[in-house]
Design goal:
β1, α1 and β2 form a beta-alpha-beta unit. By secondary structure, the chain is of the alpha/beta class. Strands 1-2-3-4-5-6-7-8-9-11-10 form an eleven-stranded mixed β-sheet, with helices on both faces. The protein is built from two helices and eleven strands, in the order βαβββββββββαβ. The termini are far apart. The chain folds into two domains: about 70 residues; about 150 residues, Pectate Lyase C-like (3 Solenoid).
């Protein structure tokens, strides 16, 4: 294991050293006093773990391809941007465009997230990206989503309030979103359906929730299938008629 104190160091120098250690075979790196350092874990491949203590900057885990990144704090924009494989665990909140164009792997966020989370997520063959959010989301969740699996638990959301914002799944043409709590038809985009998860979907959901709770060392209340709303596309071309001549 190698430990790096990041305070006062430029993000380029931090990344260069992390990548040097990783390529040299070190598979457990601890970054202390992180404060806005960008691109941590960028394009790293293979199994291993990086512990990040503090607040990482934008594009944490961009192009990640195997490692796990554990954030003991909050995270800024673009967590898991275009990641392929691996896992990112955020103990606090995360901001906008988390999971942008995510193609595989898992992202867990204990708290809340910002806007446009899961935008343009996609699946390919056996690769299915998964995002689980313990708290609430901003607007445009799952915008243009083409594949994958998003779960919003709203653990601290009052029953009368929806844990997701407006324009949910706008332009969505693949994948599924599961929200614990209420979702009004006015909150979702055109061509989007609302339903209760099937038994098979709920079993898959339970599997991810068990892993989420274990990784974050939290106890989840007992959930039933009826507690969740499934959000899904009714068509693969939601805005096709807008461009017809």
């Amino acid at each position: 294991m190698k430990v790096l104190h990041c305070r006062g160091k430029h993000y380029r120098d931090v990344n260069a050293l992390v990548e040097e250690w990783w390529k040299g075979g070190c598979r457990h790196i601890v970054l202390e006093e992180v404060c806005g350092h960008r691109y941590l874990g960028r394009a790293l491949e293979g199994e291993g773990r990086i512990d990040i203590k503090g607040i990482p900057g934008d594009d944490l885990g961009i192009f990640l391809n195997g490692p796990s990144l554990w954030v003991f704090g909050n995270a800024q924009d673009g967590v898991g941007n275009t990641m392929n494989q691996g896992k990112i665990v955020v103990q606090g909140d995360a901001r906008d465009i988390l999971g942008l164009s995510m193609r595989g792997g898992k992202i867990w966020v204990r708290g809340n997230v910002g806007y446009r989370v899961g935008i343009h997520m996609k699946s390919y063959e056996d690769e299915h990206p998964v995002i689980v959010i313990g708290g609430e989301t901003g607007d445009f969740l799952g915008e243009y989503m083409a594949g994958g699996f998003i779960v919003v638990l709203g653990l601290w959301t009052p029953k009368e309030k929806s844990p997701v914002g407006h324009f949910v799944a706008s332009g969505m043409h693949g994948g599924k979103i599961f929200v614990r709590g209420t979702v009004a038809p006015s909150q979702v985009g055109a061509g989007i359906g609302l339903d209760i998860p099937t038994e098979e979907e709920f079993r898959e959901l339970e599997k991810y929730l068990e892993e989420f709770a274990t990784d974050l060392a939290i106890s989840l209340p007992p959930f039933g299938r009826q507690d969740f709303i499934k959000i899904f596309p009714r068509t693969t071309r939601p805005y096709g008629r807008l461009y017809a001549y």
